[in-house]
Amino acid sequence: MAWIYLFIAGLMEIVWAMGLKSTNGWTRLWPSVITVTAMIVSFYFLSMALKTLPIGTAYAVWTGIGAVGTVVFGMLFLGEPRDLLRLGFVLAIVVGIVGLKATA
């Protein structure tokens, strides 16, 4: 169950990272509300996962899911670069996440 909690926490990190851009410096109400809510949900599920997972593993996987998801979202929907080198580094993060899960 801890890995499911961690996955949810990572998905919520993607939501709040993308939402943070939409808040326009916390000047837009609803994007700000959504962003703060996603932050709270993300931290809650991370804390639930930490009941059984090692902190180093959980934190690295959580940030990895958030980083990869945010980069992919940016490439797909915000017109961010999709060059081969960038994709290679995203793949390296994914390999690290999988490796940490396999050794936890």
From TrEMBL:
Gene Ontology terms for molecular function: transmembrane transporter activity
Superkingdom classification of source: Bacteria
Gene3D superfamilies, alphabetized: 1.10.3730.20
Transmembrane segments: none
NCBIfam families referenced in this protein's UniProt entry, alphabetically: PRK11431.1
Family: Belongs to the drug/metabolite transporter (DMT) superfamily. Small multidrug resistance (SMR) (TC 2.A.7.1) family.
GO cellular component, as recorded: plasma membrane
Main location: membrane
Membrane topology summary: Multi-pass membrane protein
Keyword entries, A-Z: Cell membrane, Membrane, Transmembrane, Transmembrane helix, Transport
Compartments in which it is found: Cell membrane
Protein name as catalogued: Quaternary ammonium compound-resistance protein SugE
